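Appendix B. Chain record.
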Amino acid sequence: MRKFLLRTVPVFAISYGMPQDVAAYRTPGQLIQALLDERGWTQRLLAVILAISEPTVSKIISGQTAVDAELAVGLESIFGVDADVFLSLQKSYDLAKARIVTPSDPNRAKRAMLFGDLPVPEMIKRKWLDADDVREVSKVEAALTRFFGVSKLDDIEVLPHAAKKTQVIGDVTPSQLAWIYRVKQIADEMMVAKFSEFGVRSALKKLEPLMIAPEHVRRVPRILAECGIRFVVCETISSAKVDGVCFWLNEKSPVIGMTLRYDRIDNFWFVLRHEMEHVLRLHGQDAVMLDTELEGERADTGANIAKEERQANEAAANFGVSRQMIQRFIERKSPLFREIDLLGFSKTVQVHPGIVAGRLQHATRRYELFRNYLVKVRSKISQTAMIDGWGEVAPVEI
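C-alpha cells predicted for this chain:
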C-alpha cells in the first residue's frame, strides 16, 4: 500500500495552484508533468514526496501505469488539483486506448437488436433455427437470415432500418413477426385445392354441423384444404399473445394460422370463423390480419373496433348459434342459469354446450358460468392438422 508524505504539501499547493486549461491534457501523466514543470520539480522529487520509486513515477507520466483513486487523492494533496480531474483524464485515456485496441464489429449493434428482441433461444428450442445453442453466434446469424428469407442480417425486418416486407395491420412485436414467418414457412409446403369464394361458403355449411361435438374438429383441416385454404396450427411463442392470423401467399392462396392459445371449443370455433371471414372478404391480401387477445372487448362489434375486425367478429359471433338467440336465452333465464337449461338450449340449436357457455360468458361477462363445458380440442385437431409446437415440429426445411 502506498504511503504519501504530505506534511509540506499545502505550502506547494497554495504557492502554485492549478494549470489554467486542464482540458488541454489528454492523459493524467501529461497534467502531472505540466505541474512538475510549473514548479521546476523533477520526477525524482515527486517520487520522494509520494514515497514511491522513480521508475513508477516515470511509468505514470508516460501512461504505462494508471492513476488509481489512492494516487489521485495523493496528487490532489500535493498539487491542489481535484482528484476527480486525474481520474477523469485516466478514464478518457483508457477508453481511447480501448477503442484502438478493440476491433470494430459492425454486426454487434444488429446482433444486440436481433438477439435482444427476437426470442432466439425459444426459436432454437422449437427447431425453427438450425442451431444448437444461442452462443453459436455465427451459426445463429446464418439461421436467422434463412428463417427470414434474406441474404444478410441488415435485411431482417425486425431491424429498424430494414425494408418491411411484411405489412401488418396495427403494431407487431418481433415475437409475433417470427410466429408469422413460421406459419408462412409451413403454409408454403402445403398442397391444397384451388381457392374460390364459392368453395369457402360451401365449407362453412359443412363446418357448422361439426360444432355439435369436439371430436368433429378433426375434419376441419380437410374441409379447408378442399376450398383452397392452407390451415396451420402453430403454438404461440413467448408473450406474443397471438390467437390467429389471415394472410395470402399470393392473390389466390389464403392462409389461416391459429395458436389454440385458449384450448377451448368455444374459442376454437370463434377464432376459426373470424379468420374465415377475413378470407371471404379478401382481408389480408395487402396487409397481414394478425389477431391478438381475441377475447373480451376485442371480440365485440362496437364502433371502437376496426372495420375489418368488427366484420369478422360479427360473423364469428353468429356462427352456429346467433347472437340474437343467445340474447333471447339470457332474457328468459337471467339471472339464474341452470345446467338443464343450458343443455336443452344447446340440443335445440345443435351446438356443443361449451360453445353456448362461451357465448353466454361473453354476453354476460360472467366467466364463472358452466366452465366445465369448455372442453379442450387441441388433441383432436392435432390428429389431422399441420401442427407446430407442443413438442411437435412441422416437417419443413429450415
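Further analysis of this model is presented in Appendix C.
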